[in-house]
Every structure is written in C-alpha cells, then in structure tokens.
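Ticket reopened. Same input as before:
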Amino acid sequence: MTRRAVATLLFAVTLGGGAVALPAQSGFGVTPMAQGILVVDHSGAIPGGGGLTETRLVQPVLMAVAHGFGNKLGFIATLDFEGATMKGGELTPGAWGEGYVDRRHPHTTVHELNVTANDLLGHLDGAGRLSVTIGKGFVPFGTDDPMSRPFVRYPVNHHLSQLLERAVATLQYDLGPVTVEGALFNGDEPTQPSDWPLVRYEGRWRFGDSWSARATVRPLTGLELQGSIAHVHSPESRPGAGPDADKTSVSARWDAVTPKGERYALVEYARTSELTGFFVYHTFLAEGLASRRRLRASYRFERTERPEELRLFDLFRTQRPSPDNSILGISRWSLHTLHVAYDVFLRERKLTIQPFLEGTLGSVASVGGGVFDPAALYGTDKVRAFSVGVLVGWGMRGHRMGRYGALAGGMDGMPGMSGMKM
Amino acid sequence: MRLHRLFPGIVAATLAACTSTSTTTPGGGGVTPYTVAVFNGNLQSSLAGAALVTPLTVVVTDVNGATVTGAQVSWTVASGGGSVSPTSSTTAANGRASTIFTLGSIVGTQTVSATTASAPAGVTFSATAASSGPVSAPLLIASVPTPTGATYDHDTFVRDGLAFAFMWNAGLRIYDVGNGVNGGSPANPILVGSLVTNTNGVPGGAQVHNGWWFHNQVTGQNKYLFIGQEGSCGAIGSCSVGDIHIVDVSNLAAPVEVGFIHIAGAGVHNFWMDEANQTLYAAYYNAGVVKIDVSGTLSGDMSSRITKQVQPGGPGNTYIWGVMLSNGTLYATDMLSGFWALDPATLATKGGGNNVPERYGSDQWVYGQYAYSGSWGNRGVRGNAVKIWALDGSGVPTLADSIIVPNVTTISDVAVTPDGKMLVITTEGGPGQGLYVFSLANPVKPTLAGSSITSQGLHTGEVAVINGRTYVFAARDPGVPEMDIFDITGLVP
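Engineering reply: fixed in the latest deploy. New output:
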C-alpha cells in the first residue's frame, strides 16, 4: 500500500464528499460520483506455487454524469486511478488480459469520456427514442461491467463478456421494452493505463475496424434479457496484425427492491472464437445478491476458459502482442465466490462505507490438450482466495457502468437498478 | 456564466481530447523562448563513416510546455566530422524535427547540435564511432522495419549477400546486404523483392516463419526457396498446422510460389538441408522429424516426396523445434523430449532424448564435438539455459554443462560462427532479453564476450559472414518488429 494510493483514496472521497449534485437548472445537471476500495487480497493459486497476500487500493474512480437541454444531451467522464494504485495489477485467481495473468490489469486513466445525443427524432418516431453516443467507453456488447456488480474481485470472464475502453460510436433505438444498438469501434485493447484508443495507425483506420450489435428486452419489470454479437479486429496487436475475435453473449438479469431488501440475479453465457474457430473460449456465470437491512450477501459461480500463454520473467505477465499465434493450452476455471458486506450510510445515503469479506473456492483444469499443466505452474489445481477490505463510495449506488442512452438507468429519474456493489 | 452554456464547450473539449494535443505556432510578435529537447536518437553507436540507424529527433516546446509547430531547427556537426541531412528541418504538428547523422571518420565520440532562433543553446546529441576493425560489443548497424501494419519479423536466412527476411503475414522480403544486385550492404539493406505466400487455408494467414535457399549441388541451380508456415491449431505440444511452401526465386525481384508440402494434422517449424543429396529435413512439431526428397522439378503438391518421418519422443511426447545435420548425424531438439541424435538416412535414433526433463527445448547448433541447445518458456523452471552437449565418436550427446542466462525466459535461437570462435544466442521474455555472444575458446565452458540488451526480445539471430565481417541478423519481437543487424566482427579474437 503506497502513500500515493492512500492519497488517491482520500482525494476521491474528499472530492466526492465535497461535491454537491447540482439540481436541474435550465435542463442541466451534474452528478459527481466517486469510489475506492481498500482491500487485502490473498491468493493461494499463484504461478510458482505457494500463496501471496497484498494490499491495494482498487477501483479508485471519479465520475461525472451530466445531462443538458432537458436530457437531450448526456455526458459521462470517468477517471480511473488504478494505473497509480495497482500498477502491477490486483491478485485475482484466473484473471487475464492486456498482458496480465493471475492478476487483473489496471484500467486506463480515462476510463470513459463520451457524449450522448438522446431522442434525436423527437416526436417524429412516436414513442421511440433514437440516440447516438460518441467518445471513449464501453461497446454495446455483453453484460454490465464487474465494477458495478456485487463482487470486488473481477470474474475470470471479464475479457469474454465485456468490451471497453474503446473509441466507439453507438447508434441506439429504444421502443417500449426493446432496445437495439449497433456500434463501430477500434479493435485494439489498451496496453497500459495511459493508452488512448488507436483511432488511426500509420495511415490506416483502426476506428471502425470492429463492430457490435446488442438487443435488450425487458419483458417484465426488473427482468432484462440481452443478446449481443461482436467482431473485434486484432484486439491484442495494436497495429492490427493479430488474429480477430468473434464474440457472442446472452444473459438474463433480474433485480428488484422488495420489502425485505434488494434482490438481484444474473445468468450469462458468452463465447469468444479466435482464428476462425481454432481457439474458442466459453464462459458460464451465475450470480445473485440478497440484502436485509444493512447486510448484503452475494454468491457467484463461474466456469470460464482462458488462453494459457507464454509467460515473461514476471510470471504474472505475458507478452503483448504474443510473439506468434501459438498458446500453451486452454484452462478452465470453476469458481465459487461468496461476498458479504455491511452498509454504513452517511450524508443522506450518498456516502457509503461498506466493509466486506469475499472468499473464493474452486479448481482449474487444462482442457483441449497442450502442455499447460496447472499443478506444475501453481503447485496445485485447487483455487483458494480471500479478500477483506472496505469500500468507500459517493453517489455510485445504482449506477450501471457502461450503459448509455436509454439504457443508462438509475440516473435522473430513469429506472433505478439495484444489485450494485453499493 | 450559466452552466448550460458551458455544456457544448465541454462536449467539444471531450471530443478534442480524444484526438489532439495542445500546440502553438511560432510568430506573432517577438522571439518566443522555446525549449529544444532530445526526443530520440541520442547515444547511438556505429562504424565510423556509417549513417546512424535512428534519426536524431528533437521536440520543441513553448514556455507552457505545449509543442510548437513550424519551428526551424538547425542541425550542426559540432565534433568528429561527419554530416547531417537535412541541415535544417521544421517541426511537425507534434513539435518534432529530425535529421540523419552520418558519422565522420574519426573514431570516438562525435556530436551534433540542434538549435532554433529562440533557443540558440539548443541541445547536443552524442554518438560513438567505432573503427572498422574488431568491435568491442555487438554493434547495431542497421534496423529494417517490417512493412506498415505488420506485427512480426520471425527469422532470417542469409546467403550470397542476400537476406531473406520472413515477416509473418507481411511475407517474404529479400534484401541485398552485399550481394551487389541492388547495391546494398549490411549497414544499408536494399529491398530486392517480396512475396506473400498462399495461406493454404491455414487460419491466421500466410504466417511466413522461416526458410532455406536451396543451392542444389547436383544441378547447380539456386532456384528454390523453402518457406515454413507456422500456423496455429490450438496448443503447443499437442498439435500444429502449416505447410512448406516452395518458391521459385530465379527472379529475385519477382519470386513465385510454385508448390507446397502438407502433412495433415501437423505444421512445420525449422529446416536443415543436405544439399549434396537434395534432401530437406524439416522439424515438424508433433509430426516429428520429416525427410523430404527435393530433387528435380518441384511443382504443385509435393507431399508425396516425404520419404521418412519419425516422432523421436513417441506420440504425445514429440514437438520438434529444430534439426541440424552435422558430421553424419542429424540432431533434433524436441520441446518436450530433449535433444536427440538420429541417423540421417533412416531417422532411427542413435542416442540422446528425454534428457532435459525440467525445461522445454528450443533451438540448437552443432560445431565440432560439441552441441548447444536452448530452452523455452516456463516448465516449472524458466527456459534460461543453454545446454552444452559433448558428442562421442558416433555423434551421441552427453550433457557436459549449461549456461544460465539471467533475467530471461527463453533462449530462442542458437548459432556458432563459421570460425567456431563465438556462440551466439538470442533471448526473450525478461529484462535480460537481447543478443549474447560467448567465446568458445573453451567450447565446454563458454564465457560471455559481449551482449546487447534490447527493449523487445530477439526471436532469432542468423549468423552470416559478408565481405570478411561477421554479422547477426536478428528478428526483433512485436512492439518494434524489425530486422536488426549487428556487427560482431572480432568480438572474440
């Protein structure tokens, strides 16, 4: 835990706590939000064997969500300071992506920065709402970002189930219980927190080399069904010379606020195919939350496959882009995670202080051949992980990160969503 | 100001922030106190009289730290002789301006200053000029980038002053590095021809990995170049895919693919040839070691020319990286089952095998009565060892010693210079990655003579002697994929 991390946490909380959500003034409003989680992580599945315990400040974010002209314009800016507080990543069994493995990578400093023009056609399309979102942020694909779900440690499937931190233009049409979206974006993933999406590279457009489409249906109050597909060009090679990925995702999500407390459940399946099917990774995840008074209990099960790649001298890192297209094999992570938290609300429930415990049990296995042997790498094929910490947040309760336009619920009178971390 | 009036400005700033940086332009009254700083190209080394590989680049900023567009930068050779071209350049939108520095004939430190009218003190670049005699460390004399958009440079084959660079999906690129056909040299490679081979239905594209220019000692023809395609099929150790592509290089400027060799369920890796017997040996990963008759005309599907095939480690324990013929024995390194000695006629095992259980194997080289083999990745133990093998009278290896290279995870290529004085290895996957040269004064106890640590790993290093000097043609890993040419002449006297 560094002084910089503590300073960042204090800064985030101070700024969030000191800010005032501006009421609508001539159709304009700004809602500031902030969050930071001080956590002690222990993992019993680390490369080289044994266990490792670390303290980190994770998910330290400052957000501003604004709207203007009677909600005709929306604006989101999210700064993420993980590049300063967890440069080496967060110990997370099974995590992978962007050159990190068995640690979750830090996100880019400018996590979201985009503007949405809502209901472009006004009354011309009746009850329908056509919107456009442009800027840096989440691609309309898959499920909600894990940062706005009940658990602190990310699921293994983050890179199978979400696409984020891209330069993206999303066209969205919402009519009644149905929302359809289509997007163009740049395929390349960031490689470090300071990266911006590559809009062009050496005279070639990267923006627009990838696309996605998502349909969301809300047949009943609180129930949301989602299906999406995406084609991502060369995500792991920024110049654009790496293999493409074809992705699909389906999910069902339910949330409600009952007299006994909040209820939330999510079931998702996603699939990513690379090199026209030579590498295929599947994930199934189910999670739920129930709260009673101030106590919140959540459970998550996931079975997710990930690539096993050549590791560097730092065994928590892999080379990006890979020196060739080969991998050591595919591993399957089957994990049960239990998260228990206790809410303390201050400042009219805007400020949340939430101590928590989180534990994970499970196993890892090699599937589909190859030389990868989990027992040889970790000294065991059993996964044990434990986290304890405290989340401090301002105003983020109910915010579903990465959803724009008509799907940006929970803000400014739009339908509220429960089941969030706070 | 009312907040809603600010909003369009916020939006505009948001979009602008995604694509641009703050800049100013010179002019508009008086001399603005700019700052000139080194951006790139300082502290390079090369042979006296040669152009430096990397242009000298400065960045000009104003008092607010914003980059300045359109500033005139003057370049002046301050010491050591030599020349710069151009002598004056204008900063671009990113505030940078560059020049090429050709070293003078004086051995030692040479300097160039860069100034602007508003920053007369400027900044000074230093470079070291080496004599044309022996080098004291591997000296980078040229870097050839991969074509735009290419990610990989994988291997090089050098013969008769031509460098055949195998640049993955950017294909084969042939450079004159002393042949004379286009006036190139190792310090100034000049492109002669190129070809992207067929994908043959392999996912991922042409994936041009390695090659061998066949000098047929029976016919005297130098017509064919064999290219290995390293495709992906799922997982190292269990399967592979990719063909041998046969290219007619009779016209070096316009190579033409004329045939291929295919093995179902397996992909090719490195080659060696017995040119006198018109035989190609191929390391074929899970298919093992493959012997191919390449006599006569080669055209179309030549898979029927495979005459022998063996899996030295047995099914499930064979993943051959490389082969080499020496002193009547065919040696093979297996990523899974170690270092083998085979009979080149029958491919029967003569000895070795299952002798490196703690590491995955990689490349090899045999010289005289010793062989050297590398290691790869992490098999519980990092692939940071060069195994040294003593060969008995029949060529059978016995482990004699090892070199451990700190701070790397892979010894990706191994070679011995033709005079037998230097062992050259390339390394990847750690802060120690780069090029290492060892003295073979005692071949069983090599001693480090020099190294060049590189920001990206070096995947392969091809040793070649051109006009009396010894070079390593190295393939640099993604990030900065390029062919780096090092002079190692006389590093070991």
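Confidence is low (pLDDT under 50) at residues 1-23 of chain B. The longest strand of chain B covers residues 119-130. Please confirm and we'll close it.
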